[in-house]
Amino acid sequence: PRKIIIDTDPGQDDAIAILLALASPEEIEVLGITAVAGNVPLPLAQRNARVTCELAQRPETPVFAGCEAPLLRPLKTAEHVHGATGLDGADLPDPSMPLQEEHAVDFIIDTLRREPAGSVTLCALGPLTNLASAFARAPDVVERVAGIVLMGGAYFEVGNITPAAEFNIFVDPEAARAVFACGRPITVLPLDVTHKVLATPPRIAAITALGTSAAEAVTGWLGFFERFDTAKYGTQGAPLHDPCVIAFLLRPDLFTGREINVEIETQSDLTLGMTVADWWGVTECAPNALFIGDVDADGFFTLLTDRLRRLP
Ligand code: BDR
Ligand code: CA
User: For 1-31, how does the pLDDT look when each residue is reduced to its tens digit (9 = 90+)?
Assistant: First the structure.
């Protein structure tokens, strides 16, 4: 299996991504989960990661707390989307599994140094503060990264937190800029993809029908998302962002994209955090990312439902 670290700010969609990864041990080995402040402050983000591991009955998964604020800016959270807890919609017990003592950034650095070079993929589901901090503190680990697969940014779909920017990039644009400049292979799952992966009532019903504890929680989470996002976007269901990262690892054939240059706006108040993506190749700038543009959404939901079936 491919070794990954999941860097995350759960978030219902983050939690579903974690479940999808933990349900796929043949393809994916989760070395650890590193929490970062984003959708909710860090204490809730690390708690929610542990809640999710326990839901999957995988309490041995190491969970680490990382950065509690972006590199240079005050934290902006998204309780208006995810609810006060970040996991509103399902009533789950407080976790009893421990939080690891090591800081998430140290765990990322130590893991990249310990594991064979080129064997660890970083999966980023929130603001990129932990990754950028690790790369700044230990530049030697950058070349040891196999690749980075992240949910963030947008091109045609433009923004969701401002008219120009997607939440994960907007919250810590300086971190995003550093990560996009790191020189390792980056795959981006932007809003252009996630807004095609809609949790419609029939797709939610197929998950509910699994009848497991995990399916019940996912149903509650998707229902919570649905109330906010369908009103916002006027679609038949809410976009399911972060699980696209794990689905890409499992089934890259479900996705198509282009190797392009992507730069991050960090100066303008108006377009802060915009992913300036050269989709049409109008610059001479060398590609630095595989920017995904399309997805087989039915294939995605079939995969997600099949994998959730394996969880208790
Ligand atoms: C991203 O922001 C968060 O609200 C979601 O968890 C996802 O990672 C979507 O813009
Ligand atoms: Ca997230």
Answer: 999 999 999 999 999 999 999 999 999 999 9
Q: How confident is the model at residue 107 (pLDDT cuts 50, 70, 90)?
A: very high
pLDDT digits (tens, 9 = 90+) for 153-168: 999 888 999 999 999 9
Ligand nearest to the CA of 171: 1
Query: Of 311, 238, 202, 297, which Cα lies nearest the Cα of 12?
Result: 238
The pLDDT value recorded for residue 158 is 84
Ligand 2 centre distance from Cα of residue 274 (Å): 17
Q: Contact, 310 vs 28, CB < 8 A?
A: no
Please tell me if the CB atom of residue 160 comes closer than 6 angstroms to any atom of ligand 1. Answer: yes
- State the distance from the centre of ligand 1 to the C-alpha of 114, rounded, in angstroms: 30
Would the pTM count as exceeding 0.95? yes
Residues within 5 A (CB) of ion ligand 2 = 9, 11, 14, 125-126, 242
Whole-number average pLDDT of the chain: 96
Residue with the nearest Cα to atom 10 of ligand 1?
167
Index of the ligand 1 atom closest to the CA of residue 161: 10
User: With a 6 A CB cut-off, is 7 part of the ligand 1 pocket?
Assistant: no
13 close to ligand 1 (CB < 6 Angstrom): yes
* ipTM value: 0.99
> How far is Cα 279 from Cα 310, in angstroms, rounded to an integer?
38
